[in-house]
Design brief:
The chain has a domain at 68-215. The protein contains nine helices and three strands; from the N terminus they run αβαααααβααβα. Strands 2-1-3 form a three-stranded antiparallel sheet. It is elongated, with a radius of gyration of 37 Å. Helix 4 crosses helix 6 (131-141). It is mostly helical and 216 residues long.
Length: 216
């Protein structure tokens, strides 16, 4: 009787241990699965963030130049004979003055050897036509500038801007460039004198609707 009792009472304990072991094994597998799932999810998030970062870096590396603008330093003489020959200081008349002439006069003084019409046109084109609007704005805001000489940083033409941003290879044959050797020599002279500089392009944010590319 005692042997039979021990056998009968021992069987449920073995079954209970087997059931517990199976449950533990199942739980362990579930925990491993959950852990692997979380790791895969984290890896996917990191990979996605990595692709976004690479995309941002690519965009920034290609578009950063838009936030820079090339400027030329000129000593502008606000000639009364050009701006206000009658001396009336009427703001409407001041707004109609030929401010491009001020830029041309300055460049002609800086490069007195440039005489031909074609060469002069190329010389004057190094500075953005939008520079005249900047001079107009200054004079209409402060007519007291008339008759004085001021040193100003004015925006370069968009082709000059592209050249200094490295978008035009100076080593290419002249026939393959949109900027000729003569213009490059003038720009080199200005650069050697510290008159060429790239600055943060505030006009990118303030003049977005400008018709002048170098002012937008």
């Amino acid at each position: 009787m005692s042997d039979s009792t021990q056998t009968n009472t021992g069987t449920p304990d073995d079954g209970s241990r087997d059931t517990t072991a199976r449950i533990k094994a199942t739980l362990n597998r579930r925990h491993r699965t959950d852990r692997n799932f979380r790791l895969i999810g984290l890896a996917a998030i990191c990979l996605g963030l990595g692709f976004v970062a690479l995309l941002f870096i690519d965009i920034a590396s290609k578009g950063y130049s838009a936030f820079q603008q090339t400027y030329v330093k000129l000593d502008i003489e606000y000639s009364a004979a050009v701006i206000d020959p009658d001396g009336q200081r009427d703001r409407k008349e001041l707004a109609r003055a030929d401010y491009n002439a001020l830029v041309k006069n300055t460049l002609s003084e800086m490069f007195p050897d440039v005489r031909g019409r074609r060469d002069k046109r190329a010389l004057y084109s190094m500075v953005s036509s939008g520079a005249a609007f900047e001079l107009q704005r200054r004079v209409t805001s402060d007519p007291g500038l008339i008759g004085t000489k001021q040193t100003l940083w004015l925006p370069a033409d968009d082709i000059v801007d592209s050249f200094y941003k490295g978008h035009i290879d100076r080593n290419l044959p002249e026939s393959d460039r949109i900027i000729d050797d003569q213009t490059i020599s003038w720009l080199d002279k200005l650069n050697a004198e510290g008159r060429i500089e790239k600055r943060f392009n505030t006009n990118f944010f303030t003049n977005g609707d400008s018709r002048e590319p170098e002012l937008a």
